Every structure is written in C-alpha cells, then in structure tokens.
Amino acid sequence: MGALPSAEAPLRVVVSGGSISGLGTGLALHRAGIDVHVFEQDGGAMHSAGAGLVVQPELAALFHPSDGAHLPTTSCRGRRTLGFDGEFGALQRMPQQFTSWAAVHATLMKLFPGERYHRGATVERSTRNEQGLQIDIGGVGAVAADLLVAADGAQSPLRRRLLPDLNPHYAGYVAWRGTVPERDMPQDITDTFADVFTFGDARSGGHALAYFIPGENLETTPGERQMNWVWYVGANAAERDDLLVTRDGIQRRASLRRGMARQSVITELKARAIADLHPMFARLITLTAEPFLQAIVDFAAPRTVFGRTVLIGDAASIVRPHTAGGAAKAARDAQALADALVAPRSMIDQRLDRFQREQLHYGQTLLEYGVQLGRRWARL
Ligand SMILES: Cc1cc2nc3c(=O)[nH]c(=O)nc-3n(C[C@H](O)[C@H](O)[C@H](O)COP(=O)(O)OP(=O)(O)OC[C@H]3O[C@@H](n4cnc5c(N)ncnc54)[C@H](O)[C@@H]3O)c2cc1C
To answer: What's the complex ipTM?
Structure first.
C-alpha cells in the first residue's frame, strides 16, 4: 500500500454495504474522526428480511450509553428444552438478552450521521490511482477515497472479484425462521415461551429454538413483542435448491426473504412441524404467516486486506447461527478496524496487517465452534 495523504487530511473511507457491519464500521470510524461514507444498494425497507439476534458483549459495546440511543432488547431467565414427545424439560438458569436485526439497524441509523449514509447506491468497482482510490458507485458517480471497506455480506461482490475461486461450503442443512406478533399468540403459547430461551428437539434430528424479540415497531413491553423462532432442517443439495426456488420461479442461491417461499413448501413445513416437534413449537410455526429460509454455510476468506480494500463482517467469514456470533463478529470487526486506522499514517500498513491477523484468527475460531455446535445440536 502506498503512502496515504498528509496527516492533516482526515482519512477518506468508503464502506460498501449498510447493514450491521457497514453501519457499525461507519459509526466506529466516524467516532474516531475518520471521513467515512456508507453506501447501501438497497433503496427500500431493509428490515423485511430481519428477525432475532442474541445480544453479545461485542454488539452491546457498539452502543455507548452516553450517545443517548439505547438498543431495544428483551430478556429471559434461563433455558429449557421441549421434547418432541410432548415433554417439558426443567428450566436451567441462564439470563440472556435478545434483540432484532431491525432494532440494531434502527439504533445504528440514529447514531450515524444521516448525510453520510447513502441508500440506493451500489458500489460497482474501484480503481487505484496516484491519489488513492476512485470508487464508482451506481446512483452516485465516482468517489475518491483512501480505503474501501467491503461490508457487502455473505455473497460479497467485492470478495468474489478478489477471490473468484472461493465459495461458501454448504453444511447440509437449512434454517427456517419466522416471527409471530405476540398479540396474535394464544395465551398458553405465550405462557410456554415467556421469559425462557426455549429449545426443541426434532423427531427426525435437528432442533428448533425460540425467544421473544422487540415488536415490529421495536416495542419491548409484554404483549407488543414478537416471538422469534428458528428450525434447523436437513436438506441435501438438490432439496436445498428446490426450497430456494421462489414463488415467482426464481432460483435463489442462499436465502429466501419473507414472502418468497412457495405456498406448497410452507404447507409441507407446517405439516412436518406437527409430526416432528413438541406441540407448542408446532403451533408456533403453524401460526407464522411467512417463514423465511437460510442455507447454512461455512466460509472463511484466507486473507481480508488487499492493499486498500478490506473485507469485514460476513464478507470476510460466515459462521453458523448456532454461535449467535454473526452480528457480534461484525461489531468486533468494526471497532478493530477503527482502532487500526487511528494510528499515524506511516503505521497504517502495519496496523492493517495486525488487524487482518486477529480478524482471521477470530473468524476461524468462531467458524470451528459453529461446526462443533452444529454436530452436537443440529444432529443432521
Ligand atoms: C435486511 C437484512 C436482515 C437481516 N436479518 C438478520 C436476522 O434477523 N438475524 C441474523 O442473525 N442475521 C440477519 N442478517 C444478517 C446479518 O446482518 C449478518 O449475518 C451479520 O450481522 C453481518 O452483517 P454484514 O453487514 O456483514 O452483512 P449483511 O447483513 O448481509 O449486509 C450486507 C449489506 O451489503 C449490501 N450490499 C451488497 N452488495 C452491495 C454493493 N455492491 N453496494 C452497496 N451495498 C451492497 C446488502 O444490500 C446488505 O445490506 C440480516 C441481513 C440483512 C441485509
């Protein structure tokens, strides 16, 4: 990497992707006095794909109490497993906090300056020149920068250009997800799941889990929250591809958002829930209007710093949801990158090198942990 501009000029950073790692990076860099702009290709309501997240310390650390914007969260007293034969397991004390993707995104949006967040703006390519980088952005034009951060997700277009031969490895099962507004839940279902992180063994292997998250308008009071569930189901590659065909007949690669799954697939999923899961889980899944789907994959890029382009979040590595670590990893990357970039200009290469080493180690460790948990829990 060549010399960066003089110490007087703030470092100019373009972030591609305005989800958790992109916005988190924007916020951490802005707090560090760096001239950062975030470009998000989606021009509409991004929350339609969102559901629940477990709050980990790395994610919570992005939100400073002094900023005045608090992350809406729900909580539980402990964990309990419901057997497929109708058994209610004992409660194990283990308090935990939960939130939703929409709540994290909305809170980050409150904290990050609006004039630095650009919607409907697709990062297309970057070219190196004597002044740094020229980044071409659809809907915006050419932007000059010193560093490009690829926070463009699991299917990262920038990573595909840098590492064209590497693809995520399919783990052999999918996660169905859904949410149900608490106001639409019969009282006995609410009582079963209230205050507990509930797991459910499935008769044919795999497991389900459920917890309350903030409501559609981020309310956290009982009665106004949503119930969030996930069910891991085995599917070979052909079955996965079939599940990933939308109701419009489009073959998707990795996930289906709400409203995309075919009605016949949803009907089959609900019938399978009745045969496979504890009746309370089956009723919860049956109540869900639009379940959505994610194919479970493992991926870790062998490097994440390419001169003046840095991969972070899911673009750098994808871990299984059992770790509850995807958003925490994104938040950790964001803060670590900000810490690396506040160094004197002459040390930035060195600091990015260290950032990369630590990021690769953290990502690989979490990835392996996810594979272990998958073997132990998903049993698929
Ligand atoms: C709408 C949405 C909802 C989600 N909901 C959940 C959830 O409920 N639970 C959960 O565990 N995880 C969820 N995720 C995934 C979760 O955010 C990630 O696993 C993790 O937080 C790391 O995020 P990321 O920012 O690295 O990647 P992602 O969250 O995948 O974000 C990548 C972003 O980059 C944008 N992008 C891609 N290419 C370009 C480009 N060329 N130019 C500009 N922008 C581009 C995408 O539109 C996307 O917003 C969701 C992701 C999205 C986008």
So the answer is: 0.94
